UniProtKB/TrEMBL annotation:
Presence of the UniProt keyword Chaperone in the record: no
Cofactor(s) required for function per UniProt: FMN
Family: Belongs to the nitronate monooxygenase family. NMO class I subfamily.
GO biological process: response to toxic substance
UniProt keyword Ubl conjugation, yes or no: no
Species per Swiss-Prot/TrEMBL record: Brevibacillus laterosporus
InterPro entries xrefs: Aldolase_TIM, NMO
PANTHER family reported for this sequence: NITRONATE MONOOXYGENASE-RELATED
Annotated protein name in UniProt: Probable nitronate monooxygenase
Role description: Nitronate monooxygenase that uses molecular oxygen to catalyze the oxidative denitrification of alkyl nitronates. Acts on propionate 3-nitronate (P3N), the presumed physiological substrate. Probably functions in the detoxification of P3N, a metabolic poison produced by plants and fungi as a defense mechanism.
Signal peptide: none
Catalysis performed (reactions): 3 propionate 3-nitronate + 3 O2 + H2O = 3 3-oxopropanoate + 2 nitrate + nitrite + H2O2 + 3 H(+)
Cited Pfam families: NMO
Length: 367
């Protein structure tokens, strides 16, 4: 018996199953992964961060060649940071990490960042995927242009106040990102220190779903199986967004040592860190994160610190050294066991959800 799980989110977004593949930046979401999720009836998402406009256009076309179904393109909308003072502790820590890969000490020059957000968004407007999704900030002018071009717009909130600002900007759905989530915290103003807002998925989704009724809430953070999907829907969510569950799949282009660490990680192995990018993000704890904590260095603003650690991460990636690359993953990582095909994951999620519904129903009796 197969179950039809159709929510308002499915109707608005023209999909069959209320399951969204998180846009995962950093060379993880291949075209094959995005297309597999959309082909299975969910909503695949292309990660538009850290790629050139040209590469983004190619990725969109690659996905289009694999599926006619709707998919999203995601951007990280952050504020450009001002130049800051660099502490001696930071410089010392950075240079120690660079030395390990025979990289010359940092010159101290403040990196110049190209504004690729505007250029990538121009590509999105020209290519017109069904959905434009964003995190870390409000969609603003990008959201307005996307809507005017007929796209659906999705924003990400970690608090009630952020969700209300997204509603005021007329988004079509809001991702409620719980503190369990893998990758960067989407908190709009993550401050200079600490983990950003980390409300658990359970209270965040329950609160937002009960207060924000105008648009569907998409639950994200720690959802690894069909049982968790049922729980999220019971809280009032009308869809779920999964990242970690798909990280280790066959179509994910996460590197081999990253996948190995994921499959061996326990539920206690993740933490939120600013070590890699300057912005809080959750990943499996490794040497790089521990050294940053020990140094007591003050992080630099995102994406400056990301830029300054890039060469180290690239060198470590080439050397297959998992202790110096970001191992983004959510608190559900302990449930990742082996490489599976994305389509099989989608089937398993639905089957488990169905079993979970039946189990719950079997407990309910008329008196
Ligand atoms: C490796 C990785 C990269 C991510 N990159 C992005 C991104 O580029 N844009 C975004 O909106 N969210 C990103 N996220 C966060 C997801 O949107 C989502 O909040 C999270 O994966 C949900 O929690 P889960 O990992 O426990 O499923 C990323 C998550 C991971 C694990």
């Amino acid at each position: 018996m197969s179950m039809q799980l159709q929510t308002r989110f499915c109707d608005i977004f023209g999909i069959e199953k209320p399951i969204v593949l998180a846009g995962m930046a950093g060379n993880i979401n291949s075209a094959a992964l995005v297309a597999a999720v959309s082909e299975a009836g969910g909503l695949g998402t292309i990660a538009g961060a850290y790629v050139t406009p040209q590469a983004l256009r190619e990725r969109i076309r690659e996905v289009r060649a694999l599926t006619n179904r709707p998919f999203a393109v995601n951007l990280l909308l952050f504020e450009q940071p001002e130049q800051q003072e660099v502490t001696p502790a930071f410089r010392q820590w950075l240079n120690q990490q660079r030395e390990r890969f025979n990289l010359a000490p940092w010159t101290g020059d403040w990196p110049t960042l190209q504004d690729e957000i505007t250029d990538c968004f121009t590509v999105i407007l020209e290519e017109k995927p069904a959905v434009f999704s964003c995190a870390m900030g409000l969609p603003g002018k990008y959201g307005e242009s996307a809507k005017a071009a007929g796209m659906k717009v999705v924003g990400m909130a970690t608090t009630q106040a952020e969700a209300e600002q997204l509603v005021a900007q007329r988004v079509d759905a809001i991702v409620a990102q719980g503190g369990e989530a893998g990758g960067h915290r989407s908190t709009f103003d993550a401050g200079e220190d600490g983990p950003g807002e980390c409300i658990g998925t359970l209270p965040l989704v329950a609160q937002l779903a009960s207060t924000i009724q105008r648009v569907p809430v998409i639950a994200a953070g720690g959802i690894m199986n069909g049982q968790s999907i049922v729980a999220a829907l019971a809280l009032g969510a009308e869809a779920v967004q999964l990242g970690t569950r798909f990280l280790g799949c066959a179509e994910s282009t996460a590197n081999k040592v990253y996948k190995e660490r994921l499959f061996n990680a326990k539920e206690t192995d993740t933490a939120v860190t600013r070590a890699f990018s300057g912005r809080p993000a959750r990943g499996v704890v490794n040497h790089f994160m521990k050294e940053f904590d020990k140094s007591r260095a003050r992080s630099l603003a995102y994406p400056i610190q990301n830029e300054l650690t890039k060469e180290i991460r690239q060198a470590a990636g080439k050397a297959l050294d998992a202790d110096y690359i970001s191992l983004w993953a959510g608190q559900g990582v302990g449930m990742l066991q082996k490489e599976e095909k994305a389509a099989d994951i989608m089937n398993a999620l639905l089957e488990e959800a169905q079993q979970s519904f039946s189990r719950l129903q079997s407990w309910v009796h008329e008196k």
